User: Fold this.
Amino acid sequence: MTAIQRLNPTPLLPGLALTLGLSLAALLLAQLPVPGLGIIGPLTLAMLLGIIAGHFTTAPIEQHSETGLQFSRHYLLRAGIILYGLRISFTDLQSAGLNALLIDLVIVVGILATAAWVGIRWLKLDARTAVLIGAGSAICGAAAVLASAPTIRARQQAVPVAIATVVLFGSAAMLLYPWLFTQEWVQALFQQGDVAFGRLVGATTHEVAQVTAIAATLPADAAHTAVVTKLMRVMLLVPVLLVLSQLFGRDDTQDTGTRKLPIPWFALVFMLLPLVNSYQLLPEAVLAALHQLDQLFLAMAMAALGFATRLSAIRAAGWKPMALGALLFVLLLVGGTAMTLLLS
Assistant:
């Protein structure tokens, strides 16, 4: 996008109107009492609607909308990630305790390392696709995939593939954990520790929305611990992006020998926004409106990504991404349980 296009809003309007319509439709669909829609979530619905629209839109309309679509994929995505930080306060993070942070650290590092090792060495996936799948499983689902993709310069078609693993195995967690909590052997394993089980849910479930759905089925203490532990994982997105920007930034200048470090500045701003909640700098009504705006921006970015995605590319990815997602899901469950029992 040129500087003139950025200053002149007219070329942006068709694409922005398209992504806005798709995202509003996704947000409305997610509220309907239809089985399965709540599990999928509005962000993934926006991507799916974008994929459908992209397949049926004519070439002239697509060309006319491209500037606004690029704006949504780039600027609205970063704005949505930044505003995501308003969901977190340092008081909440302190209430979960040091054990929750240690579990989250081990989970994030272990899942990312496993995704890279198994995905690249054994499944022969390209490094960026393996890392995207690992980020979605390790940190915060679709939001982590969206934030990581520009940082590592992943192929656009790799994003929906990674998000598909988040949807599938995060939904599996939503069905599995409430059932596990009712089992006597699980209660015995955790020694009736509702808080410990909530810590497990928060440390191992993919999406914040999925954790919230599971928490609704748990006692109050377990539910609170689950959500806060998950938000701690979300905070780890920033150091992960900094490390990834350093690792993948080396590719830019291998030929010249000069090292370039593409720092994800939007992630650093995201890290500062919990101060707003911690010091109550904004009224609750304003925060609630910003939360809605955040979800809208992320949904518009997802719709724009979906619009440029072709199902043939997802099919071409084959079974290997799902195999990696399944392995990471099992590792989250088994390793997360072991870490929770060890540190609780």
Notes: The chain has one domain: 14-343. The first helix runs from residue 3 to 7. Confidence is low (pLDDT under 50) at residues 1-7, 253-261.
